[in-house]
Design a protein that fits this description.
Elements lengths: L2 H10 L10 H6 L3 H15 L10 H32 L1 H7 L4 H22 L6 H26 L1 H21 L4 H20 L7 H56 L10 H17 L3 E9 L2 H8 L1 H18 L5 E6 L2 E7 L3 H17 L15 E9 L6 H18 L5 E3 L17
Parallel strand pairs: 4-5
Antiparallel strand pairs: 1-3, 1-4, 2-3
Helix pairs in contact: 1-4, 3-10, 4-6, 5-6, 6-7, 7-8, 7-9, 8-9, 8-10, 9-10, 12-13, 13-14
């Protein structure tokens, strides 16, 4: 998915409210290569001075999508407030000149609220850049037209007052609307053009008066354009910094997650290692203790593995361990956990076990390894790799010695299986609950 498509999807995609996605949701839509490319683009942007920041291409598309909600809220609030204020000031028009009331009601109470409601609707969802930009010239044109119409209806000094008030009010839109500089300049030009046009048709003043006033307001509004641009630059700079920080933070989190997986994974077989198994055993023990359940363990040892390595070499021995690991994984029931315990030993955690299910799982493991028919070069010709298996089951209690005692009994059962001739399963006899209580009967 391209960055532009990602930005559009994050704003209006399925399951996401239009305009409600945060900049981080947009970044989350990018894959690793797109993030890396975007980070390089950000670094190029930040290499220059802050005042020279110019967002282009993909970065600009993402910024527009990420900042849309803020820009929309700002503009719609301004439109709403001006509409309410316009309706309220109808009474001020009447106080200033009762004859203005009909024109005031039409323009202030109907024309401005109606036009601004349409503009607010345009900002109700993301639009093309030019559509959003053209809303500023329309906004200021509407207000200046209303000021000019009221001024013309009032004539005399009232004409000039309304034009001055209109120019002042519309100049706030130039500062408030967070849009591109091109449209900010266009809006400013509309203000000055209408101010001059309505000023020139005022018979009560000489032509030079509105011309001079227009030049004066041109300088004033001209100062607002770079101010608006500076505000846009600050917002863009903040966005770029936060985006870079987010991408770098996500990369660090992903790296830490990979390290955590590596720390808990056996590098040869891909199974969880002993550390991961012991953590999982402690967690499962606590979970089963909360419901007075049981925990079962299966310990597996590859028979005569030293002879295998001595005869075939360690590389062949590694391939044998991988094959045994896959067989164990395929044989255990859900939600059991198989892990490499060390060397040629494997261990399986069986939550909520009972003696029959534990014995069945252990026998499936033994049979699965035997079914590999993997030749054992360290034994007589025709002999294959087998495993000895020990099992134990225990009632889960909250005392800390429980998991340790369970593994000790499983280990004892494994050694008995080896002593009895290997390639067999031996279950440890049931033990009293006191064996699993801390500080009591510590002999395994």
């Amino acid at each position: 998915m391209g960055a532009g498509a990602a930005a559009r999807g994050a704003i209006g995609g399925p399951g996401v409210k239009s305009g409600a996605a945060s900049r981080y949701a947009i970044i989350d839509c990018l894959d690793a290569s797109e993030r890396e490319s975007l980070l390089a683009e950000i670094d190029r942007v930040l290499a220059g001075r802050v005042r020279d920041i110019r967002l282009t291409g993909r970065l600009r598309a993402i910024y527009r999508a990420a900042s849309w909600q803020h820009r929309s809220r700002t503009i719609r609030f301004w439109l709403l407030w001006v509409s309410v204020f316009s309706i309220v000031t109808c009474s001020l028009d009447y106080i200033m000149e009762p004859a203005l009331l009909p024109v005031s009601l039409v323009t202030r109470a109907v024309m401005i609220p109606g036009c601004y409601a349409a503009l607010a609707w345009i900002w109700s969802r993301p639009r093309a850049a030019w559509v959003e930009g053209v809303t500023l010239p329309i906004t200021v044109a509407t207000m200046m037209l209303v000021a000019g119409m009221l001024g013309t209806a009032g004539a005399g000094a009232i004409h000039e007052r309304y034009l001055l008030a209109g120019a002042f009010a519309t100049s706030t839109a130039v500062v408030v609307f967070p849009i591109d500089r091109t449209w900010t300049i266009a809006g400013s030009a509309v203000i000055l053009a209408l101010f001059l046009a309505f000023g020139l048709i005022n018979p009560a003043v000489e032509a030079k008066v509105p011309i001079i006033a227009t030049i004066f307001f041109g300088f004033v509004i001209g100062c607002l354009i770079p101010a608006r641009q500076a505000m846009n630059t600050v917002l863009e700079h903040a966005f770029v910094l936060s985006t870079r920080n987010r991408i770098q933070a996500d990369a660090l989190t992903a790296a830490n997650a990979r390290l955590a997986v590596l720390a808990d994974t056996d590098g040869l077989t891909g199974l969880p290692n002993r550390r991961a198994f012991e953590v999982r055993l402690a967690q499962n023990w606590a979970a089963q203790a909360a419901r007075a359940g049981t925990v079962g363990a299966i310990l597996i040892d590859v028979d005569h593995f030293k002879r295998f390595n001595d005869s075939a070499g360690h590389a062949a021995g590694d391939r044998c361990l991988v094959a045994v690991a896959r067989a164990i994984e395929a044989a255990i029931p859900e939600p059991s956990l198989a892990a490499r315990y060390g060397g040629e030993e494997f261990v399986v955690l069986v939550p909520a076990a009972n003696p029959s299910t534990l014995a069945a799982a252990a026998e499936r493991i033994r049979a699965a390894v035997a079914g590999l028919a993997h030749p054992h070069p360290g034994l007589a010709e025709g002999r294959c790799v087998t495993v000895s298996v020990g099992t134990a089951i225990a009632p889960a209690l909250f005392e800390t010695r429980g998991p340790e005692a369970l593994l000790q009994r499983t280990d004892a059962a494994l050694y008995e299986a080896k002593a009895l001739g290997r390639d067999r399963v031996v279950a440890a006899p049931a033990a009293p609950p006191t064996l699993y209580r801390a500080g009591r009967n510590r002999a395994a």
